[in-house]
Amino acid sequence: MKMVILLLGCALCGGLLAANQDRQTHQAGLDRACINARQQQTVQDKQQLIDACVRAGGKANRCQQQYASVGQRTGNERPYVSSLAPCQQAESYRKSGRQ
């Protein structure tokens, strides 16, 4: 009887570990999608700033240098959760695992 209970307990633990790994894999995929969307948005934002600088009379090289650091992380801070849909999905899924 003790052996049966022990085997059932091990089977349940194995299932929980697999579910946790699936959750981590899914979260990693959502995080990757967020990073990709954020990078794409950053490139667009940077280009808009450079274009506006050039339209205002700046030289293209100077404007590119001025906005070269746009989108780069500073320090050890966690990237902000942006309004991009993939980032909101990733954050919602992360929060749902804490409940």
UniProtKB/TrEMBL annotation:
Keywords recorded for this protein, A-Z: Signal
Domain of life: Bacteria
Signal peptide (residue range): 1-18
Record flagged with keyword Signal: yes
Protein name, UniProt field: Uncharacterized protein
Organism: Aeromonas lusitana
